[in-house]
Amino acid sequence: MHLETAADKCTGCRICENFCALQHEGAVWPARARIRVLTQSDDGPFTPNVCRQCEDPACAAACPVDAIQSDPGTGTWVVNEECTGCESCIDACPYDAIFFAAQGGVAFKCDLCQGEPQCAVSCPTGAVTWVQ
Amino acid sequence: MFRYDGYAGKWLWVDLTHGKLETREYDPALAENYLGGNGFGTRLLWENTGPQTDALSPENWLIFSTGPLCGTTVPNPGRMEVIAKSPLTGIYGDANSGGFLGPELKFAGWDAVVVTGQSPGPVYLTIADEQVTLRDAGHLWGQTTYKTEEAIRQSWGDPSVKTAIIGPAGENLVRFAGIQITPQRSAARCGLGAVMGSKRLKAIAVRGRGPIHIADPKRLHDLSLNLQQRLRANAIFPAVSAHGTPGIVSLMNALGRFPTQNFRAGGYEHADRINADALHARAFVRNVACFGCPIACDKVYQIPDGPLAGTSLRSVEYETLNAFGACILNDNLDALLAANRLCDELGLDTISTGRSISFAMELWDEEILNLDDTGGLPLRWGDMDVVLRLLPMIARREGFGNLLAEGVRRMAEVIGRGADQFAMHVKGMEIPGQDGRAQRSMGLAHVTSTRGADHLKAFPTIDETGFPDEGRRRYGDQYLPELVQPLATKYKAFLVKDGEDFGAVIDSTGMCKSGGTFVLAEIYWPDIAAAIEAATGMSMSVQRLQEIGERIYNLQRCYDAVHGITRADDRLPRRFLEEPSPTGNAKGHTIDIEPMLEEYYQLRGWDAVKGWPTADTLRRLGLPDAAERLPFAPGGDPSSPLPWGAKITGLPQGKGDPTGWH
Fold this sequence. Notes:
The complex is a heterodimer. By secondary structure, chain A is of the alpha+beta class.
């Protein structure tokens, strides 16, 4: 099971970011979205970018306190409360898919919404899909 | 914390005269009675300006206003209102734009920005969350909107900053100058760009990184998803999504509702050269959405080859295809797109700009204008070389462009010689791309709109071509079939009133009228009431929401009334009343507005003689202050004086800089 992105279908609407933040933060807050729509220009093209759930993740390897662990229930990599906010994982991730929360001072990343990723649920064009 | 979620809870007050920026708490009573957006702006304009206010003076208020659903997860929540007294019409003015600026402002922690006064020199305002700064814009003054945005983003060092910018047209107080929103989109109508120019405010640039708090995230999530699913299942979703507003060009042409040759006709023989298929085949690049919109009616276009190769633009709308196509008898799509792009760069409303040109072309055709009047420019129908030369002249008020920059009503006054019988405006606002002879409700909508000729206040869509299913879904069986018949007058007053009230609410929430609410006619009163409850925590019934819509619309009418607007101004141009439409469904038809208008006043609780809300109606809507102010209104001239203080007696001569300032 994984998230699949199709840049050619993305319109840059950012619905995925909004639903992601609503799910995780209880607020509409794109700066806290775990998925981000990347673009060089307002006119696109647009690329949805989200954690690949790597088999051997660079973020987890870089973490000095082993705060990034595989969730036993879902098999996804999640940041636990051990995180000290050193940002090593953010430098290490080759996909720019783990972020730092200025408020709170910790890293955060996609946890696949514990099995029903809201980005895929809400994407109106099929640019982000949940492949089982 | 503000009492209600969904709001940032504060707005920014900008006094440009003294260079002061102040934080103001959002008034909970204002949220409860006017929601935000359009309602917030209407109330502030009513309280702080009036007949004594020259629209282009420091005393006018320019209000950028988001609503409680703007930037949330409901479908198409990317809209922001701009409200001010209009220098084009001299009455209530507003304009609305999609894009990303409204949500960005809320993420920065502001529900609205209210601009008053006049800066001694050009400035722009930056908003980076809590940090608000006025900056020198001397180097940006005179620049196009695109160049200005590029420069602001470069100096900020962030390419994702969202902007509202005026072009040379706004600086030079062109009466129909728009405000470009991250320049591809526009808060175009009513000349609010000139208001911004008169304040010497070149741009507002915003970057926001904060949250919009939601009262009931689970409820809003489920409701948003449900609304999106309903939109995607809607029968016309695929067409709107694929083509946007250009998708209706061919349909409106067939109905005789596509203004042609300055409204001489309602159909254009070469419409197939400027319709959605022609546009798509020639220049389509990709779909691109406004914030949070599942429809993505906007597209990126680029001319691939020929002399205008590389011209790229966004938001090519039905209205512009009409204004720079059929209405001036132009079938050259490349030149049309170039004119659209140029209007975006110069900061011109494509509708009023196109209409001023088609009006001048008809006057040329009627031999009312000659080469002496136009400074040597022949104004032949469809001559795009001349049109493309005229646009910068309008924006800079050069030569004949200085007259066009005044808009159709003032042009007719200046020119005289019977020009007014071809002047297609209502209350000084150029009529957009509809024709009441082919759709009765639109004729009524044009005269009852509080900002002058406009389709978007009532936005009657379900009787454009006859949508019985939508009519039934919204209103039940009892109004069918007449309600959805374009040429029937029965029930149209009812349709227009409901649209105006619902539209006032939508424009006050931050949602889009071109999205699920009016164009797809899918989202309606109960959905909005539920969404407001879920997002804000405010208790909201359909009845209360309808009363809010009515309150806002009545207060706008009161604003117009104290400016001397009465029933006598609620009329269409002579052409629609006397000249039968020559083509399409409407062939042989004129329009008689009076019976519909009579019914409309009755439904509204307005005095049928004056066309004003009665004191009882105003008290019922909780507007006792309006009831007090209305009967004693001084009335007077609804038009504001020319910016350079002269009365128009002849053709203005080459005033490149009417402000006499730089």
